[in-house]
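seq:
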Amino acid sequence: MTQHRATPTVAQVTLIGFFVAALVTAQLTASKVLAFELPVALPIAGAELVLPGAALAYALTFLASDCYTELYGKRAAQIVVNVGFVLNFVVLALVWSTIAAPAADPDVAAEFATVLGASTNIVVGSLLAYVVSQNWDVFVFHRIRDRTGAEKLWLRNIGSTASSQAIDTIIFVAIGFAVAPAVLGVGDVLPVPVLLSLIVGQYLLKLAIAVLDTPVVYAVVALVRSRRAAAGEDRAAA
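struct:
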């Protein structure tokens, strides 16, 4: 059974801090679209991997949330995820208020707004994708745990992240580059082939990270549990 402590541990604070840092980075880098040349052409994506700049940072939030879910339970993870959703608005409010504030140098202010002022379609897409996919990740993680028991951490890490990242990618690209521009009149509606390329490119990277970060999840969970055990032994000895 997951143990809950009244006082937050260093591990809890570190995981939450890592989650929030990656989340804020993702929010601030979402508007830049990256393009990487591939040695071979992939179906739909072609020979170029196109993805939002936030893909890597956002994928790391799932690493942090899966570690947190495994160590502290479903309810605690849901609190972190949904508080993180609210903090997105705090970040946006602070950035937008800084953009709107009078500037000493108009040229610098214009560059600042261009770099940090995410467009409405990107904001709507990223926020909706976040709240749906992160809650789904926590839900699926625990459903797999309920079915398989405490073993097979690799299965719940990859299974929950793979499915939630698919949901996140589809929602973000569809809302940010098709639905929001069409409905709100902000940004350009991208052609379907480009949308599919964005979805495939972003998802392939996130799926690769989900597989590659599994040893990291095991290491973090093992380290925290070993320190818990050592602390328990120390208290018992005292």
